[in-house]
């Protein structure tokens, strides 16, 4: 008999349990890409006309998909991360469990004016508009091995600024882990020389 969807089984929060994925399903085993991809929906013309917004909330709400996404985003960087940077706001949701899985700390990169202590600050253009990101000046120990996490890599402006801010604050960027890369927007061009891991591409 197949396991019910609402099984009492849960991921054990350790690396390397991706092989348990089929245990979560009543349907035949899916690949990680199928599992995750099926739970990212596209919202046309949000937040502005012409933008196809990739909405990850169905994935976040689904226990096995969320667990698999977190583990798969963490796995390539296992054993070499001291701190995980989450980019406001959806990056926070992924960065915290990824840091937990990696045994690392979490550092928030926030939009302008939201961090209480002195910050480094940098402005940039994104796929829809512009923004300023900030990080606490004392967020990192010198040379802290830092993984940057976000939901979507689009033009790469956000990730490039995140890397710059980490380095201004004394961290060493060891890589970037995203759920979804929009390859047509060439975000990697702004991240040349950096290790970028995308769970899915579109
Ligand atoms: P970019 O700086 O252009 O790479 O944009 C990446 C940031 O903007 C990430 O924090 C994403 O959450 C958000 N973003 C950009 N484009 C999209 C999109 N099409 N769907 C969802 N989020 C997006």
Instruction: Count structural domains.
Output: 1
What class would the helix/strand composition place it in? alpha/beta
SSE run: HEEHHEHEEEEHEE
Shape: globular
| CATH class label | Alpha Beta
> Which hetero compounds are present in the coordinates?
adenosine monophosphate
How many helical stretches? 5
Radius of gyration: 17 Å
Round the mean pLDDT to the nearest integer and report it. 88
How many E strands?
Answer: 9
Poorly predicted sequence stretches spanning 5 or more consecutive residues: 1-13, 17-26
Q: What strand line-up does the widest sheet have?
A: 5-6-4-3-7-8-9
Helical fraction: 10-25%
Features:
single chain, 202 residues, alpha/beta, Rossmann fold, seven-stranded mixed beta sheet, two-stranded antiparallel sheet, 5 helices, 30% strand, globular, disordered N terminus, binds adenosine monophosphate
